[in-house]
User: Fold this.
Amino acid sequence: MKRHSSKRPTISQVAERAGVSAGTVSNYLNGTVSVSPDRSSRIQEAIDALHYVPDSNASSLRRKEARDIFILTPDLNNMFYTKILRAYMDCAYQDGYNISVSSYEYSRDLEKRMLSRLISARKGSLVVIFNGFGDEDLIESLIQHDLRVILADRNKTVAGASSLSFDNENVLFDLVRYLKEKGYKKLGLFTEPLLLENVRLRHDSFLKAARYHGYSGKAICVYCDETLVLNKMNQGYLYMRRILSETPRQDLPDVWLASSDNLAIGILRAITEAGYRVPEDFGLVGFDNLDISDFIQPALTTINQDQVYFGTRLWDISRRVLKTNECINDTIMQNLIIRSSC
Assistant:
């Protein structure tokens, strides 16, 4: 009986099948030199046919360059993060990097345990932390152990760490000005707990913008509940249902700003079930511009955070940080998407 070879296909075999040199295949895999579309197509077809898997560990040793990326995110069930990660990982895998993704479930203790374990990672590896809080001492320790750190979706940074964030301030001034022009007299902020720095900045910027545009006292309402951390759509629905059952209509805001689209969708269901209408009885605004926000009825006015662009821009910064260890801090602007809910 004929024995099947257990040897893995080599880069030379891929090159021979594609009709190119092994160096061209290496350039295609590592992104070090541009490869023409025709050659790229032939190389990928050869890789697929031979089931070739690059040995990224061996190649990183030859380059003396770490190829490991560790990502910590607060919630892998949140479409906002998964869309960013999909764009980021597509770029990273194409460039031959290894990625490990973990969720700390908005738990400070769990995040700290994860960061503590990463101190033993290979020197030069990259750690990307989405949001995070109360972790500055561990981030400094990672940097001292020759690991590279990028803080994502987080405005406040740590010395030696790079960062990429959304502008959570100017866009809220644009939003409140728009609400003022629409004639809303009483504003309501519906928010998860202010654990994460970006959520806290949205809260502070909302209050600052409201006061700047002439709102004060009971014309500014903030609704915050600890249950809104995870399962936001369902928990937003339950919390809003409780608010509507316990509060007279005259004491409620005219328009609600939710700190995420998922919360806003839960709010919408609770408002509808209570016999109110959006936007006739309440205006409603979300935050994130998730794909689903344009398909619900009424379509959700929201603050646009381009998750695909954020993911690709985050990869651009990651690649530079991995290769040069430079410190990069960048901000992405946001804009208001006006639809029929407000």
Notes: The mean pLDDT is 90.
